[in-house]
Design brief:
Layout: E1 2-14, H1 18-30, E2 36-40, E3 70-71, E4 77-78, H2 80-101, E5 112-114, E6 117-122, H3 124-138, E7 147-149, H4 152-158, H5 160-163, E8 172-177, E9 181-183, H6 185-198, E10 202-205, E11 207-214, E12 220-226, E13 232-242, H7 248-255, E14 263-275, H8 278-281, E15 287-289, E16 303-309, E17 312-322, H9 335-338, H10 345-354, H11 356-366, H12 370-377, E18 390-393, E19 397-404, E20 407-411, E21 415-419, E22 425-430, H13 438-449, H14 451-464, H15 476-489
Parallel strand pairs: 1-2, 1-13, 2-10, 6-15, 13-22
Antiparallel strand pairs: 3-4, 5-9, 6-8, 7-8, 11-12, 12-13, 14-17, 14-18, 14-19, 15-16, 16-17, 19-20, 21-22
Helix pairs in contact: 1-6, 1-13, 2-13, 2-15
Cofactor: FAD
Organism: Cohnella pontilimi
InterPro entries: FAD/NAD-bd_sf, MQO
Length: 500
């Protein structure tokens, strides 16, 4: 059943995840009279990649993630990516703090908790790398408060669960910074959509966008199907944001914009081991990141995390990478095949040829038994018992494949915004660091898509995000001010006032 009548709206957001929630919340503060409409194919907000069980819940600020600090051929450490990721997380914290201060969202302890972030390495070569990394970061004001130790007694204080029964003949080391966070992005997403609903945003759950077409006047017509009733409604909007996680690429391809050509996607699934045994959970209070295996994608860096979900503390270890042709956890087994088009088939084939090592790694990961996964866990917890840990399937991630200066079919491991030349439509593709950078990424979307408004919006943006348009490293006095104010507002410990 189809209804040819069209409904007009100013902004359409596709997908009820953290990205759409953030963009909608920003726009409602800047232009409260704009009519915003949201379509989500699932029954509620934050059920795919944003869901708390579908991601690691790390407030990514490069405090412990070793893949953001690359060792150069001359042995020095490049910290530029770490600084960028850290500054992006500062932007998110400032916006969340603004929302809490104005009672637009409440109870920040339900979505963010203070938690030490540690990097942990084994072996002489990695210990040397970690010490160099510490020396490169510890003098940077964004990373103040970081400590380094290769003393087993000190490490026993920091991470007792990981050091107990560990063989003493292998060099080990860690860095620790007390100002990290655990973030429940699912809870935050739901809070933001509750806020948007109170601001008269039209949110349609169980509604699937079947098609997106350009109208003769340059606006966009969406064909939207009510999953329960099967009825079809058409919506017109001058601006559309596609924030549908792994579902973004197929929708972007439907738009036909030139920018959507020669782009592919490679889906990677994930598993975690989860422990809810109180006597084990009580022995660990940190997020501890190690080094990725050779050939592993950056999103597969092993880490042992304390998590706070529904006011309950648990431990999570992983991720273990896997492969599924689905682009979403609730997607179709034909998603990958359906994304191959005449304009991207060479790009996709080139990516396959370039990433034989990654393919081999994924196959090996798929073949792992639970006991093999427990063996990997024992690199972190030497006396881990299989019966204390359960396997949880995490969310799907779709890595971007595109033609770049590095050649055809280059696999991208970041978060990427694709937008039309006229700014009328934008899509978010990619994965890590993802949710942590949501506010920075959505500010980028706004600057690309609403350049005619940005100058008028700037005073309000700076009210919400005091560091907007400023490099924190060029204004170190602003770092302390932001750290203190956001830590106080978000209810984080006093340790948060020093460092990120």
């Amino acid at each position: 059943m189809s209804n040819r009548e069209t409904t007009k709206t100013d902004v359409i957001l596709i997908g009820a995840g953290i990205m759409s929630a953030t963009l909608g919340s920003l726009l409602k503060e800047l232009v409260p009279d704009w009519k915003i409409t949201v379509f989500e194919k699932l029954a509620s907000a934050g059920e795919e990649s944003s869901n708390e069980w579908n991601n690691a819940g790390t407030g990514h600020s490069a405090l412990c993630e070793l893949n953001y600090t690359v060792q150069k051929p001359d042995g020095s450490i490049d910290i530029s990516k770490a600084v960028q990721v850290n500054e992006q997380f500062q932007v998110s914290r400032q916006f969340w703090s603004y929302l809490v201060q104005r009672n637009l969202i409440r109870n920040p302890q339900d979505f963010i908790m203070p938690l030490p972030h540690l990097s942990f390495v084994r072996g002489e070569q990695d210990v040397t790398f970690l010490k160099k990394r510490f020396e490169a970061l510890s003098h940077n004001p964004l990373f103040q408060g970081m400590e380094f130790s290769d003393d087993p007694d000190k490490l026993m204080e920091w991470i007792p669960l990981m050091m107990k029964d560990r063989k003493s003949d292998e060099p080990v080391a860690a860095t620790k910074i007390d100002s990290g966070t655990d973030v429940n992005f699912g809870a935050l997403t739901r809070m933001l959509f509750d806020h948007l609903k109170s601001k008269n945003v039209d949110i349609h759950y169980k509604h699937k966008v079947d098609d997106i077409r350009r109208s003769s006047d340059g606006s966009w017509e969406l064909k939207v199907r009510n999953i329960d009733s099967g009825t079809v409604q058409r919506y017109h909007s001058k601006f559309v944001f596609i924030g549908a996680g792994g579902g973004s690429l197929p929708l972007l391809q439907k738009t036909g914009i030139p920018e959507s050509k020669h782009i592919g996607g490679f889906p990677v699934s994930g598993l975690f081991l989860v422990c809810n045994k109180p006597e084990v959970v009580a022995q660990h209070h940190a997020k501890v990141y190690g080094k990725a295996a050779v050939g592993a994608p950056p999103m597969s860096v092993p880490h042992l995390d304390t998590r706070f979900i529904d006011n309950k503390k648990s431990l999570l270890f992983g991720p273990f990478a896997g492969f599924s042709p689905k682009f979403l956890k609730t997607g179709s087994n034909f998603d990958l095949l359906g994304s191959v088009k005449p304009n991207n088939v060479i790009t996709m084939l080139a990516a396959g040829a370039k990433n034989v090592a990654l393919t081999k790694y994924l196959i090996q990961q798929l073949m792992l038994s639970k006991e093999k996964r427990i063996e990997e866990l024992r690199d972190f917890i030497p006396n881990a018992k299989s019966e204390d840990w359960d396997i949880v399937v995490a969310g799907q991630r779709v890595q971007v494949i595109k033609d770049t200066a590095a050649g055809k079919g280059t696999l991208q491991f970041g978060t990427e915004v694709i937008s039309a030349a006229d700014g009328s439509i934008a899509a978010l593709l990619g994965a890590s660091p993802g949710a942590s950078t949501a506010v920075s990424v959505m500010l980028e979307v706004m600057s690309r898509c609403f350049p005619q408004h940005i100058k008028a919006w700037e005073p309000k943006i700076k009210e919400m995000i005091p560091s907007y348009g400023v490099s924190l490293l060029k204004k170190p006095e602003l770092i302390d001010e932001i750290h203190h104010s956001t830590a106080r507002t978000l209810g984080l410990s006093q340790l948060q006032a020093v460092g990120v």
